[in-house]
Amino acid sequence: MRRPRPTRPAVQPRRGDRHGRHGRLGRSSVVRPPLPPLDGRLDTFDLHVGSAVELLRSMWPDLRPVRIEIAAMPAHADPDELPRWLIDTDAQRIVLFRVPIERLLERGHDDAVHRRVAIEGAVFRAAAQYIGREPWEMDPHHSDE
């Protein structure tokens, strides 16, 4: 004699809202929604400055106590030349001016790669000026041959 099959209800009972279709708990709301990428001009400028400063501080102990700040524009500028940074050795401070660094690029050199090179170059030149060296001397493998 055959055993009767167990009967299943026509409609499955609904799982809780936190369960996925495989019976696992869903992720918490802390990880959703994903954060937007850092792709704004201010964010990328800060990121490029930060990575260049971190590299310089690891190579030059003289730069470790120096505060490196970012400002949009200089308060007072020479009408003939717009400064890209300000060095204040008494206060141990370097101020980088974002707008002149980013916006005064040559025509045709205003893409993301050239902008990054300009930002990192300004950081290196300002740091070199602060410690009294030439920018190419900032490389610890530089030789005076």
Quick structural overview:
The protein has 145 residues and is an alpha+beta fold. Helix content is 31%, strand content 10%. A 3-stranded mixed β-sheet has the order 1-3-2.
List the helices and strands and how they pair.
Elements: H1 41-59, E1 67-71, E2 85-88, E3 93-97, H2 98-103, H3 112-131
Parallel strand pairs: 1-3
Antiparallel strand pairs: 2-3
Helix pairs in contact: 1-3
Give an account of the 3D structure:
The chain has 145 residues and is of the alpha+beta class. The protein has a domain at 56-74 and 82-135. It is built from 3 helices and 3 strands. Strands 1-3-2 form a 3-stranded mixed β-sheet. Strand 2 (85-88) and strand 3 (93-97) form a beta hairpin. Helix 1 crosses helix 3 (112-131). The radius of gyration is 28 Å and the shape is elongated. Residues 16-25 have a biased composition (Basic residues). This is Metallopeptidase family protein. Residues 1-33 are annotated as: Disordered.
Q: Can you give keywords for this protein?
A:
145 residues; alpha+beta; 3-stranded mixed beta sheet; elongated
Order of helices and strands: HEEEHH
The number of helical segments is 3
Structural class: alpha+beta
Overall number of strands:
3
Fraction of helical residues: 25-40%
Percent of residues in beta strands?
5-15%
Radius of gyration: 28 Å
List the strand order in the largest sheet. 1-3-2
| Mean pLDDT across all amino acids | 80
- Please mark out the parts with pLDDT under 50 across 5 or more consecutive residues, or reply none: none
Largest sheet: 3 strands, mixed
Choose one word for the global shape.
Answer: elongated
Distance between the amino and carboxyl termini? 100 Å
